[in-house]
Specification:
With 154 residues, the chain is mainly alpha-helical. It has 2 domains: 66 residues; 67 residues. Helix content is 73%, strand content 0%. The longest helix is centred in the middle third of the chain and has 29 residues. The chain starts with a helix and ends with a helix. The relative contact order is 0.16.
Length: 154
């Protein structure tokens, strides 16, 4: 039941992703929102705050990986994987918060990083591209399900 639900949910998100990519010649409300998270007036001014924040985020990501894999290596690669995933999610969340604050909270509005619509693209791809793939991975048979199926008489 769980596998069916995850696959149906993943399929509907993937279908929605493809519909928005190829319908309405790029003039959908979804594209309007994605593009509104970027800076399209003139060349984006160089924002020293953005340079400092992005460099701190990149240094934290690289430093975190060095710490996880070199300074405090663990015997279990699964624990290293989970720590790495947590680090990536924290840095990505901080980056999205930075972009959202520059777009929606600062007045007058400033480009978060440059002319790109990073926040819109990240949210769109995260929800409609990466989430369905993750749901498909979650729907795969675990070892427990395979073991219990092997015990059933034919």
């Amino acid at each position: 039941m769980r596998q069916c639900f995850l696959l149906i949910f993943a399929g509907s998100l993937s279908h929605f992703f493809l519909d928005h990519l190829f319908e309405e010649n790029g003039h959908s409300s979804m594209y309007t929102w994605i593009l509104s998270t970027g800076w399209w007036k003139t060349r984006a001014p160089i924002n020293p705050d953005a340079v400092v924040v992005i460099s701190l985020l990149c240094a934290s990501l690289i430093g975190g990986f060095i710490y996880i894999y070199r300074v405090k290596p663990m015997k279990s690669s699964r624990k290293q994987y989970h720590k790495s995933l947590r680090l990536i999610l924290v840095i990505a969340s901080a980056y999205c918060l930075w972009c959202a604050s520059q777009i929606y909270l600062v007045s007058p509005r400033r480009p978060a990083v440059g002319e790109e619509a990073d926040l819109g693209v990240l949210v769109f791809l995260g929800v409609f591209f990466f989430l369905p793939h993750w749901l498909c991975i979650l729907s795969m048979n675990s070892r427990d399900v395979v073991d219990s199926a092997e015990q059933l008489p034919l």
